[in-house]
Amino acid sequence: MKRQQKNTPENGTDLPKKVFFTPDRILAWTGIGLAAAAAFFPWYVFFNEDKFGMKVASGDRTRDLPHTGPREVFSVSPMAMTNRNKADMPPVELPDMLTTATVSEDGKEKQNDLAAGRADQPFPGKTSFRLLHVANGRALIEDGSGLYMVRIGSTLPDNALLTKIEQRDGEWLIETSAGKTYYPER
Question: How high is the mean pLDDT of the chain?
Fold first, then answer.
């Protein structure tokens, strides 16, 4: 019996054919094709702008009013109605120059005091505030409208100025230009 020979190139027989379309090659060629499309597609869009551009509605681009007839006006503002004839205008009434009240002399004295800065008008209504905390030369106060951080010279809610922030007997206090002293609430 004859022995079978193996298919080898030495004995003249062909080897099995190699497969050309392997998954690796398919994936590689797909990547090359996508890269080429990504490189050339923007240029295609650039040179064919009419195919890809936004369509703008054509229209009249002027600010002229349309050529239609006048409309009927149903109400006219009194400010729009003017009389251009000077002869038809009614005479302008002058204000009444008659004095109907008297002014006391006390007002002049008080006015002179205010001009000299001697009298302070009290702030309308009673506004009170409370001292909450003192730190770093500033005080935290609270009134009905909110919290305020004040320092010496600040205007307080009662329209007085903050004159002193000091510590007495281990307790902080503030004094105002109205002569009031406020201690923190506990």
Answer: 76
- For residue 177, what are the contacts with CB-CB under 8 A and spacing of at least 6? 160, 161, 162, 163
What tokens appear for 37 in the block? 């499309």
What 8-state DSSP symbol labels residue 64? P
The whole-angstrom separation of Cα 24 and Cα 31 is: 11
**Which neighbouring-strand residues pair with 142?**
130, 147
> Between 170 and 85, whose confidence is greater?
170
Q: Specify whether the CB–CB gap between 151 and 140 falls below 8 A.
A: no
pTM of the model: 0.34
pLDDT at 96 over 80: no
Q: Which amino acid is at 98?
A: L
CB-count exposure of residue 90 (10 Å: 0-12, 13-18, 19+): exposed
CA distance 99 to 130: 48
What is residue 154's DSSP assignment?
P
The 10 Å Cβ neighbour count of residue 174 is 21
CA distance 152 to 136: 12
Burial of 142 (0-12, 13-18, 19+ CB in 10 A): middle
Residues 143-184 pLDDT 10s: 888 888 999 998 888 888 999 999 888 888 899 998 888 888
Q: Which amino acid is at 64?
A: D
- Residue 47 tokens, joined: 């040179």
